[in-house]
Design a protein that fits this description.
Length: 223
């Protein structure tokens, strides 16, 4: 499966989405083939169950994207879950689910001994339990923390991580990430032939990089 074959629906919520720098960052990064973003806060009033279920009918992967609000999802997302989740089982059974969070607190504080005292896995436990009810595959959590303090290099790195969460085939191994880069470069090279040398170099080094990753894994196993 190539990366743009995965059909992903992003369920996004942010009470201040028009003014939020992090939300704009997520929205711009999500402009990928076969990725749809449903901004819940743009829906006035109650959700129409039939319309919401229709969005789920053909997806392979569901991503919840939101800022942490007192260690919970925003109110509009909770409303969507209460309205849709029970009826969504036929469309979500055995599918994939992921979580992309934003927070103004440094990610390192979300652990035992940190200022927040709980991990993201603990905070997301109610959502992951919901997913387990439908035998969904839970993908690694992605956290955008303190965007305003990130360097341009860190921002570019996060864009790649987020786009991989949206479009890359699971499991997210080193080999899968390398193949994702090759496929992404192939698509970009079709638009800009000047990138062809970079693509050729990555393909030529692919086997060497895989061998290096395997060697590092063996070294870690002996530690």
């Amino acid at each position: 499966m190539i990366f743009f074959m995965i059909r992903t629906l992003v369920i996004a919520s942010h009470p201040s989405y028009d003014d939020s720098l992090s939300q704009r960052f997520f929205s711009e990064s999500a402009k990928m083939p076969n990725v749809s973003v449903h901004m819940l806060d743009k829906v006035a009033g109650d959700f129409d169950l039939e319309i919401e279920l229709e969005r789920l009918q053909t997806i392979d992967r569901l991503i919840f994207q939101f800022p942490l609000y007192w260690y919970q999802v925003p109110a509009k997302m909770k409303c969507w879950i209460d309205t849709v989740w029970e009826a969504a089982k036929p469309y979500l059974l055995n599918k994939e689910i992921g979580f992309a969070l934003s927070t103004g607190v440094a990610a390192k504080e979300f652990q035992l001994g940190g200022k927040e005292g709980a991990s993201f896995s603990e905070i997301l436990r109610p959502l992951t339990l919901m997913a387990q009810k439908y035998q969904m595959t839970i993908l690694p959590v992605l956290v955008l923390d303190q965007l305003m303090y990130k360097t341009e290099k860190e921002k570019r790195r996060f864009v790649i991580d987020y786009q991989q969460l949206l479009t890359m085939e699971a499991p997210f191994s080193f080999a899968a990430k390398q193949q994702w880069f090759i496929q992404r470069l192939e698509a970009l090279t079709a638009e800009n032939p000047k990138l062809a040398p970079l693509l050729d170099q990555l393909i030529q080094n692919q086997e060497t990089l895989l061998e290096l990753d395997e060697a590092l894994a063996e070294m870690e196993a002996y530690e």
